[in-house]
Amino acid sequence: MTKLENFYNQIKNSPVFFGMSDDELKGLLECFNARIRKYEKDEMIIRQGDMISNIYLILEGGVNIEKDSYWGRRIIISRLGKNDNLALSFVGSKDVESSVDAIAVEDTLVLVLSYEKCTSMCQNACTRHKVLINNLFQILSKENIELIQKIENVSQKTIRDKLMTYLSNEAMKNHSNRFEIQFNRQDLADYLNVDRSAMSFELSKLQKEGLISYNKNRFELLS
Amino acid sequence: MTKLENFYNQIKNSPVFFGMSDDELKGLLECFNARIRKYEKDEMIIRQGDMISNIYLILEGGVNIEKDSYWGRRIIISRLGKNDNLALSFVGSKDVESSVDAIAVEDTLVLVLSYEKCTSMCQNACTRHKVLINNLFQILSKENIELIQKIENVSQKTIRDKLMTYLSNEAMKNHSNRFEIQFNRQDLADYLNVDRSAMSFELSKLQKEGLISYNKNRFELLS
DNA sequence: TTATTTTTGTTGTATAAACAACAGAAATGT
DNA sequence: ACATTTCTGTTGTTTATACAACAAAAATAA
């Protein structure tokens, strides 16, 4: 069931609505005309050029943020999952259209809020809006830091260095040397901005040299 | 003179304080313990690992946001100038230390505000704080979008494509095919993540082929 | 189960970029 | 004005990666 009520607890505990009372949250969901949308695998949620006036919160599933480069090269900016927001920066920047695509990589449920509608109505006056904007500020901060980390990943010189930087960062995020990655090989290559086959080869080499071990999407860093 | 009063108009019109009344701004500057700091060329304003509890606003000069990669490679994340903010995302993310350096590339004046001090005092209650956080949200949005653009720049396959993508984006920002870039050649190479000499060679080639023309830091895109 | 499609790994070859070393130009200091 | 330092452009060589083509494995469908 994709009813709002079924996800109420998850929504209440998501970063966007963190710190709100039940009353505030309920009022806000109503005021923002909250509804749940379902996207199938490979469906486009946002496309390059769209004007974004909604806040999107992923309730279930996974989403790739991608960009098609001038000559058809696919760049994966990031992979988002449960409790992440989509395209928040394009909500914050008035009159800027999305420069990226958001694509469901599996069946995905998204909570959609009409941000503009509400803010124009309440003129930023209500207390719940104050809490919300505070949360949005913090969420964007985190996104920012993760984009910087992505830049670090892809800015390494060799495929080997990109892989090791990426895997180290993932290990850090998971507080463990054993972790699962979300990307398949092609997506990881598009994220690290390298050729898939060359990357596969380098992964094997790293394993043979005893630096890492992996099986499918489970990786382990061996110091 | 580096007195606050001398920069009052510039501060008032900066994105951070946009939309505030004189009274609000004056109160806020006091409450946030605003002061101006001067940094010499090549001086570090922020270093990797610092905890950031201040809002920094560049009044004059230029700043590189950099990161030293694992084996001493320099990565330039972005170049900031007048009216830009430093390290805002690390203010928004509690308990996260800076993952980047901020380095003055020329003599630079920075307005410094003790963000934490004030927010803990006023408990987000004052109206000026509400306006501020709204502005910060928008500023971070823009930063986010620019980071995505940087990712696009460095994610091109060849040096030539990186250069053309970068130059096109600069032309777009300047609303003109003739524009000046802020980077010198070494900095541009570190920004695009390529070897300087190879990049210089490619620039010459582009000029010989009639795609661009340049003289020092002035570029022109010839369609 | 078997057949089909998708994903992942392997290899050889062509190509682009890093690197090193240097020369000339421009900027800076004295 | 001169000396010195910094910046930019040029070239040859080495090295890493993209690309293509294919094989093996895994996942999915029939």
Architecture overview:
Two copies of one chain form a homodimer. The first copy, chain A, is α+β, with helices and mostly antiparallel strands and 223 residues long. Chain A has eight helices and eleven strands. Chain A has helices at 8-13, 22-31, 88-92, 115-122, 127-154, 159-174, 185-192, 196-208, and strands at residues 35-39, 44-46, 54-60, 63-68, 74-80, 85-86, 101-104, 108-114, 178-180, 212-215, 218-221. In chain A, helix 5 (127-154) runs antiparallel to helix 6 (159-174). Chains A and B meet through helix 3 and helix 5 of A and helix 3 and helix 5 of B. Chain A binds a DNA duplex (30 and 30 nucleotides) through residues 157-159, 184-186, 194-198, 200-201, 203-204, 216.
Termini gap of chain A: 46 Å
How many beta-strand segments of chain A?
A: 11
Q: What shape does the CA trace of chain A take?
A: elongated
Computed over alpha carbons, the radius of gyration of chain A is: 19 Å
Largest interface: A-B, 43 and 43 residues
Strand content of chain A: 15-25%
Structural class of chain A: alpha+beta
Task: Classify the helix fraction of chain A into a percent range.
Answer: 40-55%
What kind of oligomer do you see? homodimer
What is the average of the pLDDT values of chain A? 92
Spatial order of the strands forming the largest sheet of chain A: 1-8-3-6
Compressed to H and E, one letter per element, the order of chain A equals HHEEEEEEHEEHHHEHHEE
Count of DSSP-assigned helices of chain A: 8
Helices and strands, with pairings:
The structure is a homodimer of 223-residue chains.
Chain A: H1 8-13, H2 22-31, E1 35-39, E2 44-46, E3 54-60, E4 63-68, E5 74-80, E6 85-86, H3 88-92, E7 101-104, E8 108-114, H4 115-122, H5 127-154, H6 159-174, E9 178-180, H7 185-192, H8 196-208, E10 212-215, E11 218-221
Antiparallel strand pairs in A: 1-8, 2-7, 3-6, 3-8, 4-5, 4-7, 9-11, 10-11
The first copy, chain A, binds a DNA duplex (30 and 30 nucleotides) through residues 157-159, 184-186, 194-198, 200-201, 203-204, 216.
